[in-house]
Amino acid sequence: MADTLMSDTPFWQRKTLDEMTDAEWESLCDGCGQCCLHKLMDEDTDEIYFTNVACRQLNIKTCQCRHYERRFEFEPDCIKLTRENLPDFEWLPMTCAYRLLAEGKPLPTWHPLLTGSKAAMHGERISVRHIAVKESEVRDWQDHILNKPSWAE
What HAMAP family does the entry give? Predict the structure, then answer.
């Protein structure tokens, strides 16, 4: 009976992030693309400013990396979120499954692991599909800061 209950319980509810396989870890990503938007850091304060400028490798329509398996070859500054460095990424969105599970919170109802597709996530406007712009179209990066500091107003 206990084995049946264990198998009926989704892995993200019965395993810690450290206990997950690499495939389980990867499947937690909802594919919103928020990690793939460029961030700017104030050199004086280390404050991070979020932009709507997409990485060149991000397919804005699908919110997927064009070269995910080889992304570091194409974008040396691309981040790799791991179990070890997760605490360092305080800027992760409040909706991020990695962040939520690390904080002991449940996955949102629109998460692809619960719904079986990304449609609900896109419908809730969690993905960057509706706000992202191509890096090649950007002239002044300050015009694309989403959380503008007072000096940029």
Answer: UPF0260 (MF_00676)
Q: What is the mean pLDDT of residues 83-109?
A: 94
Bridge-based pairing state of the strands 133-134 and 48-54: parallel
Q: Per-domain residue ranges for the chain?
A: 28-148
Highest mean pLDDT among 3-7, 76-80, 112-116, 142-146: 112-116
Angle made by CA atoms 110, 113, 119, in degrees to the nearest 5 = 45
What pLDDT sits at residue 79?
Answer: 87
Contacts of 42 (CB under 8 A, 6+ apart): 48, 49, 149
Torsion angle of C-alpha atoms 93, 100, 79, 139, degrees rounded to 10: -10
